[in-house]
Design goal:
The complex is a heterodimer of chains A (211) and B (288).
Chain A: E1 21-24, E2 29-33, E3 39-42, E4 47-52, E5 56-62, E6 68-71, E7 77-80, E8 83-86, H1 89-109, E9 117-123, H2 134-148, E10 153-158, E11 164-169, E12 174-179, H3 185-201
Parallel strand pairs in A: 2-4, 9-10
Antiparallel strand pairs in A: 1-2, 3-6, 4-11, 5-6, 5-9, 7-8, 11-12
Helix pairs in contact in A: 1-2
Chain B: H1 2-10, H2 20-30, H3 36-44, H4 47-57, H5 71-78, H6 80-89, H7 92-95, H8 106-127, H9 132-140, H10 144-152, H11 154-166, H12 173-181, H13 185-196, H14 200-207, H15 219-236, H16 252-255, H17 263-286
The chains are: A alpha+beta (211), B mainly alpha (288).
């Protein structure tokens, strides 16, 4: 079947070719699907979506030229005798810094300007009842980070007991947050736990160049 | 596919069975010669159901003015057919304990089912011509096929859930199940209802809650459960925006006799009422 040029998959920016993208019927656009730990930046008129349990996504864009992206992360925690407990504070915030800086730096590398950045925060839900509120730690980290960087959160939907589906359009700043029914809690928690194990095993190393 | 569903359900035969008290009451209610005192006597032989029945009868769930202190009073005030519904409603959750799964917690599963039951009951009182207690029980059971699938086909069930998430939650779960397995939880629930010989009204509500056009004998009850399922999701995720949940069949409201300009008001009032009732209802119906 012939596809009109505007419906062709837009080119990904260098470094983001591996992110899975598919046509989204409801929004009539292509959309990149983020897994925990991934991020995606685009100059195109396309969406980015992810599901969040206790993880956080920052949606950041240059509100003037529409360059922007989304990340999906959590601070590492390890399972101790008394259940979940935070890993060493330095090590865990290092991972959060890494996720936030990568996103912001890529936006700026592709033409975004720091004074035009707007930030939206989502996630950090407490989707497993008998567990320390790791979502809250993630929310507090993200808010602190944004404040320290002198950026502004223009909207957020965080905390509470629901997993979320976030669909973000950097070109317009439009975002669709849908709370998900509890039927999805275990599947999402399992994905996040798997991701948590990969970051606990692999500490962040190397310096990040700040713009 | 038909054989697959049949085999799937036969496979859980020994793991989950209908509550005895329901089977015995059901036989009596079906028999035109049985008397209220026979039914009361049968109930009295099950101390645990007796306690649950009196608790429900005296709760705000019925809101009766006089206190119900004996089983025979409960049977005559509440009605034999309603007692049969209650016998199933107060014991069905624990009969599925033998069918565990790792995809959804039983607590979350039954909370959604109970929300659906509360909403269906509220709507049934409003639209009339439906027995609110029977619709309550039908709605409480509407997703039982899901527990069969989650237990017997965990990998496919998980793939279906992931497909829903990959679609940005646009694809309803029953459609994802059809894509992956060739059938959905409603059909599996319908087959379980047949093997259990549940009353036909329950069977149709369970089997057609995602496919209301196929309802033959009880279209009104099936439609109520279909609507209640969606309103239960709204109650669960605290929203009144229809875009946040799966769509309600466009013909559903009319089929139960509600006008389109009444709909948003009905949704708001019903969701709020169910949210108020859920905590007490969990104690009455899901408490061990």
């Amino acid at each position: 079947m012939a596809i009109s040029p505007s419906f062709r998959l837009p080119l990904a920016l260098p470094g983001f070719e591996h992110i899975k993208r598919a046509w989204n019927e409801a929004h009539a656009t292509y959309a990149a699907r983020l897994n925990p730990g991934e991020y995606y930046v685009t100059k195109n008129d396309e969406g980015i979506y992810t599901t969040l349990g206790s993880c956080i996504s920052a949606c950041i864009r240059d509100r003037v030229n529409g360059i922007g992206g989304m990340n999906h992360f959590m601070l590492p925690a390890s399972v101790g005798e008394g259940g979940w407990k935070a890993a060493g504070l330095g090590a865990s915030t290092r991972y959060g810094n890494f996720a936030m800086e990568h996103l912001i730096n890529e936006i700026m590398k592709n033409g975004g300007r720091r004074q035009n950045l707007e930030v939206k925060l989502f996630g950090g839900g407490r989707i497993i009842a008998n567990m320390t509120d790791v979502g809250l730690r993630n929310i507090e980290f993200a808010r602190d980070y944004v404040a320290t960087e002198g950026l502004r959160v223009t909207s957020e939907d965080v905390g509470d007991v629901f997993p979320r589906m976030v669909v973000y359009f950097p070109s317009t700043g439009k975002v669709r947050v849908k709370r998900l029914r509890s039927l999805h809690n275990n599947t999402i928690a399992e994905q996040e736990t798997k991701y948590l194990h990969t970051i606990e095993d692999k500490p962040v190393s190397g310096d990040i160049e700040l713009f | 596919m038909k054989t697959n569903i049949t085999e799937l359900v036969q496979g859980v035969g020994g793991l989950v069975t209908l509550p005895d008290v329901f089977i015995r009451i059901n036989q009596l209610v079906e028999n035109p010669n049985s008397t209220i005192s026979e039914i009361a006597k049968t109930i009295g032989q099950d101390p645990s159901f007796t306690v649950r029945l009196l608790r429900v009868a005296n709760s705000s769930f019925y809101g009766l003015s006089s206190s119900i202190d004996t089983v025979s009073k409960a049977v005559s005030v509440i009605g034999t057919s309603q007692i049969r519904s209650l016998a199933l409603a107060t014991s069905v959750a624990s009969s599925f304990d033998g069918l565990p799964n790792t995809l959804v917690s039983m607590e979350h599963f039954w909370r959604h089912s109970l929300y659906c039951a509360l909403v269906a009951r509220i709507l049934a009182k409003q639209v009339r011509r439906c027995d609110p207690d029977a619709v309550f029980t039908a709605a409480l059971l509407h997703d039982i096929g899901e527990l069969v699938i989650f237990n017997r086909l965990p990998q496919q069930a998980k793939d279906a859930l992931l497909l829903v998430l990959d679609s940005a939650d646009e694809l309803p779960i029953y459609q994802a199940e059809r894509q992956i397995m060739g059938f959905d939880h409603a059909q599996v629930g319908g087959e379980l209802s047949r093997q259990w010989k549940l009353p036909p009204m329950l069977e149709e509500c369970i089997e057609f809650h995602h496919d209301i056009q196929s309802a033959q004998r009880f279209p009104r009850e099936v439609t109520l459960v279909h609507i209640a399922n969606i309103l239960a999701l709204m109650a669960e995720i605290h929203t009144l925006d229809p875009d946040d949940v799966s769509p309600i069949d466009p013909q559903a409201w009319e089929a139960v006799g509600l006008k389109s300009d009444e709909v948003s008001e009905v949704i708001e009032a019903t969701v709020a009422e169910a949210q108020e009732e859920i905590a007490d209802a969990e104690k009455l119906f899901l408490g061990k």
